[in-house]
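REVIEWER CHECKLIST
Item 1: Sequence provided? yes
Item 2: Single chain? yes
Item 3: Sequence as submitted:
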Amino acid sequence: MNIDAIKPSEIKVAEFVLKQIPATLEYAQQIFDIFHEDPESFKYWMEYGLYKDVDEVLSEYQNKYKDKGFCKYAMYGIFKNGELLGEIGLGCIYTRRQTAEIGWWLRKSARGQGIIDKLLPTIEKLAFETYDLHKLTIWTDKENIATQKHAEKNGYVYEGCLREENTWNDGTHHSTVLYGKLKSEWQQKAAVK
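Item 4: Structure as written out by the authors:
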C-alpha cells in the first residue's frame, strides 16, 4: 500500500485543521520554543534530550516523514486559527503487519482542553478505514500518566510494561507501557454510537 498516495493532505475536525508541519525555519523556531517552554513535560517525548537548537529541529522535520522503506508515517500538525498547537498521527505504519503507533504532543497552553480526545477518533478512522490497519498501539513512558489516561479513556487496552527498556541520555532507565486497540474493538464502539 502506498500510504502517501492515499494520505489526506489536510483534515478538518471541528475548529482544528490537521496538516503536515512545514519544514521551515519559522516552524522549527516555533517547535523549539514550544518544547523549551515546558521541558519537564516534553521529556516524555524526547528521551534523547530536548532539541539543542533550531537547526536540529529543522533537520528533523526535513527528514522526519521521508519514506523509510517498511515504516511509513501519517503525522499532522494540529492548527487552530493558524496557530500550531501540537502534532498527532500515525508513526511506524507497518502495512505488511497492518499495525501502527499512534502518538501526539501538545504545547502547554493547549493541554487540558480535551483536544486529543476530540482528534483521536479521526486518526483512528484514518488508520482503520483509509489504511485498513488491524491494530493501533500507544507506547508511552510509565511516568507519563496523562497519555495513559487518554489511552484508557479512548478504549485502548493495557497490554503490559517493558521494564527499564529505555536508557535516556542522562543515563536513567525508564519503563515503557503499551496500550492497544484492535480494528474489531473500534468497529464495535463505532456501531454503538
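Item 5: Key structural point noted by reviewer: The CA atoms of residues 39 and 181 lie 30 Å apart.
Item 6: Recommendation: ____
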